[in-house]
Structure formats: C-alpha cells, structure tokens
Amino acid sequence: MPLPVIINSLVCVAGTVLGALFAVASIISIANMKVPWVNLLLVAALLVPVMFVVSGVGVAIAYGRSPQPVVFGLVALPWLYGTGFVLLMLKSF
C-alpha cells in the first residue's frame, strides 16, 4: 500500500475516534437547543465519524483506480463536512 494511503488511513482512524467523541459532545449540546433544525443537527453530528470512515475506505479503494481529483475529494470530505457542521452549530447558538 502506498505511503499516502497509509497516512490517510491512520488519520481517518484517529478522526473516527475523535469524531465519535466530538459527536457525543455535540449531541449533548444540541439537546438543549431550541432551533427548528435541531433534528438536522443531530443527524449531522452522528455523521461526523462516518465521513472519516468513508474517506479512509474510499481512498484505499480509489487510489490507483480513479483520477487524482476523486482521491483528493475523498481526502477532503471529512474536513469539509466537519467545517460545515461546525459553522451550522455556530449559527445555532
């Protein structure tokens, strides 16, 4: 397995564990919110660690089989999703 795939896999394993902790903390915070999109926030919080899993598995499969932009998109996926989730949470406060 190429080095970039190994590095991305390690980052995604750590991101999945930390993302799960982040999701639990976010759910506790979301439970006290009174905004109309609270259900969307709950689902979005649970999908944070899932995006790291999708990225790790997706890059391992796509590396060498797909064009580079697809691989770059899969690497960026959890970071872009997490940024969007944090911005949505900030808007909710």
TrEMBL record:
Assigned keywords, A-Z: Membrane, Transmembrane, Transmembrane helix
Regions that span the bilayer: 6-28, 40-64, 70-90
Transmembrane helix listed as a keyword: yes
Protein name (database record): Uncharacterized protein
